[in-house]
Amino acid sequence: MCKEQKYIIQICTGTLCHVMGGAELPALIDYLPKNLKLKVQIKGMVCANYCKDQTKKPPFVLINSELMQEADLEKIINYLQKCENNDTYQ
Amino acid sequence: MTHTNKATLTRRELLIQLCKLLKEGTIEDQIDRIPLNMRPKGNQSLRCCIHKDRAVLKYKIMALLGFNVDDETDELTSLRDYVLRAKQRKSLTSKVMTVVDEACSSCQQGSYQISNMCQGCEARPCSENCPKNAVNFINGHAEINHETCVNCGKCMNECPFHAIIYRPVPCEEACPVKAISKDEQGIEHIDHDKCIYCGKCMASCPYGAIMEKSHIIEIFQAWENGKKIIALVAPSIAAQFRQSMPKVYNAIKKIGFYDIIEVAKGAEYTIEHESQEWSEKMHSGCQFMTSSCCHAYTELVNKHISELKDKVSDTPTPMFYAGKLAKEQYSDALTVFIGPCTAKRHEAYFLENIDYTLSFEELGALLIANNIDIEKMDNEINMQFADSNVQFFAQSGGVTDAISKKTGNILQSEIINGINKASIRQLKQIAKGKTESNFIEVMSCENGCVAGVNTLIKGKQALEIFKKNQNEIGR
Ligand code: FES
How far apart are CA B473 and CA B102, in angstroms? Predict the structure, then answer.
């Protein structure tokens, strides 16, 4: 079920997320492992006020509809790999 | 991978907290709570325990309040006391960085280590080739005697299993001029007679133990006292926010800056003068001239390569001219240089027309504390942008290009893209006349100011955004 671009990754481009590490997340495209390269689409999204929630930490990234806080490249890639693995087992 | 790491993020978080309290006017009451709030009870600690974590945060805040951490005389001094003292302070210092001893992990002296990859082979080239007989075998496993080892690295090069590694002290390794070293307790100290303020130690420390002494208190004080503050914004900002320049500038104004003057405006004068100076020098038979806009470089020459002194251009930097322009236009205002550079903070201290400096990180914290989202700003702005040619000053090679255009393309240039131990050796050769070129451009940071030590985006990414933004504006 390897539909093209099955993961839509939206990186928050609000200033808070940007300063707290979101600035460099678009580099993701260069670091995706081979098996994921074609399945991922990276976009920006305007601040959706996730940052107003004091219990959560920036930067925020939406992977499909899943919200990830304190996102960094490693975390995003690990998450995607896990999704991939689950898919193969099913 | 990315350049932002957890230690940088801690520093940014502290800056944001600090700016928020300053903005709300609750700093005195709330500041001692920051370490507690950031490392609450029951949370996992980064170091041995949360108390150590909190102590580290306290001293990082002390640095952000503009103090030398080793100046503390009474450990019971609260952050509130430091805020009060900072508000009384009348002058800044030229020592722009400080080591937070509590955070410095006293990394062991750089040394070679045998890893468990060692197979205890028969050949044992590590011990055979050691000139000091410092490698011995214990239970069939190599061991280095650090008393006799002279760190020559031969064992590492010889080992067929790559079992020997070098463990550096990151800040000492990053410093191009040996200006940072340990005391008896293993804590690092900066030798200000040698330091060129390049900030490489700060960027490299995995514990974030080296901090810039922020001017944030002074700047808020000035606002409180109703002063006009003019932002002098370095051209490298174009690489920092992935937003259009009008939006970024509108956001800066919204923080409370009275007006903005692009430092690139100052660069127009620098280029004018430097081109003329170069032509004159070539006429009078000089072999070559070097650039002078990078302050870490001019400090390097002053403190370490004095034989190059008379080759450095006498032309003042873009920051100097921008400050002058600002004070001519607004004689009653204060000026704040906003840029990516630790060395500029040092240079600014000596310039009459620059009052304070802010890093891009600090600018980010100010925006956040003011609830400003650049993306939502107006895309129109009424201001005079600098000439597009000079905007590229912020990028390695940019100075060369600008002067080359001005002088009719007869410049033969050599670009030193980043100050490090190797390029210092190269500069020493150049000082002896060993160069074919007649103009030497030196940038302390690799790729230039666009990838400065205090940026939100670095390296290749920064360079790409910079070019895109500059072209889009199409000035
Ligand atoms: S800035 Fe990212 S959610 Fe608000």
Answer: 46
| B242 close to A (CB below 8 A) | yes
- The answer on B351 and B298 residing in a single domain is yes
Mutate one of B3, B8, B9, B38 to test the A interface: name it (highest A CB count within 10 A): B9
Is B321 in contact with B214 (CB distance < 8 Å)? no
Q: Spell out the domain ranges in chain A.
A: 7-58+69-84
B111 is written with which tokens? 């040394």
Cα B246 to ligand 1 centroid, rounded to whole Å: 21
Q: B residues 10-39 near A, CB within 8 Å? A: 12-13, 16
Q: Report cis status (omega within 30 of 0) of the bond before B235.
A: no
Query: Do B2 and A47 count as a contact with CB atoms less than 8 A apart?
Result: no
Contact A16, B17 (CB under 8 A): no
Q: Are B121 and B160 in contact (CB under 8 A)?
A: yes
Rounded to whole angstroms, the Cα distance separating B415 from B443 reads 8
Going A20 to A24 to A29 to A33, the CA torsion angle's sign is negative
B364, A15: Cβ pair inside 8 Å? Answer: yes
Nearest CA to ligand 1 atom 1: A14
How many Å apart are CA B142 and CA B113, to the nearest integer? 10
pLDDT for B258 beyond 60: yes
B221 domain-assigned: no
Q: What is the pTM of this model?
A: 0.92
Picking from B394, B348, B329, the residue whose alpha carbon sits closest to that of residue B215 is: B348
Atom of ligand 1 nearest to the CA of B373: 1
- The verdict on residue B31 lying in a domain is yes
Task: Give the residue-averaged pLDDT of B411-419.
Answer: 94
φ/ψ of B355, rounded to 5, equals: -90, -50
- Give how many domains chain B has, as a whole number: 3
Residue B220 falls inside a structural domain: no
Would you say B411 and B402 are in contact if contact means Cβ atoms under 8 Å apart?
Answer: no
- Provide the number of CB pairs (under 8 Å) joining chain A to chain B: 66
* B12 contacts in chain A (CB < 8 Å): 19-20
* pLDDT at residue B475 in the model: 43
Query: pLDDT by residue (tens digit) across B15-52?
Result: 999 999 999 999 999 999 999 999 998 888 888 889 99
CATH number at residue B91: 3.30.70.20
Same domain assignment for residues B28 and B155: no
Q: Which tens digits make up the pLDDT trace of B162-212? A: 999 998 899 999 999 999 999 888 899 999 999 999 999 999 999 999 999
- Do the beta carbons of residue B447 and residue B340 sit within 8 Å? no
- What would the pLDDT profile of B273-284 be if each residue is shown by its tens digit? 999 999 999 999
Domain span holding position B399:
227-473
CA-based nearest residue to B290, from B447, B459, B444:
B444
Chain A touched by B375 (CB under 8 Å): yes
**Cβ contact A15–B367 (<8 Å):** yes
CA distance linking residue B132 with residue B150, whole number of Å = 8
Distance from CA of B352 to the nearest CA of A (A): 31
